[in-house]
Write a structure and sequence with these properties.
The complex is a heterodimer. By secondary structure, chain A is of the alpha+beta class. Chain A contains 4 helices and 4 strands. Chain B has one domain: Beta-Lactamase (2-Layer Sandwich). In chain B, strand 3 and strand 4 form a beta hairpin. Classes of the chains: A alpha+beta, B alpha+beta.
């Protein structure tokens, strides 16, 4: 599977539906495997900074091939990866939860990022969207 | 002042994408609100990665300047800049943290009172190749929300 605009729109629709049910105003971004933006929607009245945060979360999840929250463990001063946060990655790196990689089996084909609620709510929205979109086509979207 | 909703933005994107498909060049289209903040962006299958940011920045530039980016492009025309450095639009180059685009393809969206309520930008269709350009694609997008009001 390759990330395309139709899949991205489906993921975004599902995420926004979930966010509405939870009464949250969110931005949802979907990027391809290289981290390039495919589609982004901001719900009416959602805050302006959520746009870039959602995009950054999706970028981090897709390029690190792990949930954006997992990237934070490299920042532990006792871990060998400490200091990675000072690298310049397009100013895109974020360790806030709410970005999940989109997987086709073992292969990462993209990432989705949600911003608008608490970090836990953002992850719930991401997960709900991936479950809903990929359950029907038999793609393993579990993290 | 009217506001652009996500629903309206999706309608505009759909119409502009139809024109981009007609032109044969996959492209990115972005709709922003009155603050220049993104409401929706789509990158069509086959469109290059750089087109997303260019379309967002074109829409932003249209809101920021209150004019089509075609007008900004005109400001940098050698015939407009004149003999004195700085007499034309050169100073604009570094405005808005380098986000201003001087390429046609971004138009402001106005309400009934001619207030700017948002912008729409398209990137990916080359100018002067066919009948359809970035500018005509965004004009089609703009028209899509006004069809309903009639």
């Amino acid at each position: 599977m390759v990330m395309n605009i139709d899949t991205a729109k489906k993921v975004i629709k599902a995420a926004i539906k979930q966010a509405r049910e939870m009464n949250r105003l969110c931005s949802v971004a979907v990027v391809d495997a290289r981290g390039f933006l495919v589609a982004l929607h901001r719900m009416d009245q959602a805050l302006i900074p959520t746009v870039d945060i959602a995009r950054d979360k999706a970028w981090t999840a897709a390029t690190f091939r792990m949930p954006s929250s997992d990237v934070g463990r490299f920042g532990d001063p006792s871990s060998p990866g400490f200091g990675f946060n000072t690298q310049n990655w397009n100013d895109r790196l974020t360790t806030i939860p709410g970005g999940l990689p989109i997987k086709d089996g073992d292969e990462v084909v993209g990432g989705v990022g949600v911003c608008g609620g608490t970090p836990e709510e953002d992850v719930t929205v991401c997960r709900a969207a991936l479950d809903k979109v990929f359950a029907s086509v038999g793609v393993d979207a579990k993290i | 002042m009217e506001k652009i909703t996500l629903e309206m933005a999706e309608k505009m994107l759909e119409a502009a994408e139809r024109w981009a498909t007609l032109s044969g060049y996959p492209s990115s289209i972005a709709v922003v609100d009155e603050a220049g903040a993104v409401i929706a962006v789509h990158r069509m299958d086959g469109a290059g990665p750089m087109t997303t940011d260019i379309s967002i920045n074109k829409a932003f530039s249209a809101v920021y300047s209150g004019a089509p980016t075609l007008m900004l492009a005109r400001l940098l025309d050698p015939r407009m800049t004149g003999k004195t450095i700085g007499s034309g639009g050169l100073g604009l180059l570094t405005q808005a943290r380098l986000r201003l685009m001087f390429i046609p393809g971004g138009n402001p969206i106005r309400d009934g009172e001619m207030k700017v309520i948002g912008g729409i930008g398209c990137s990916g269709i080359p100018d002067g190749v066919g009948e359809i350009s970035d500018t005509t694609a965004v004009q089609a997008g703009y028209a899509a929300i006004y069809e309903e009001h009639d």
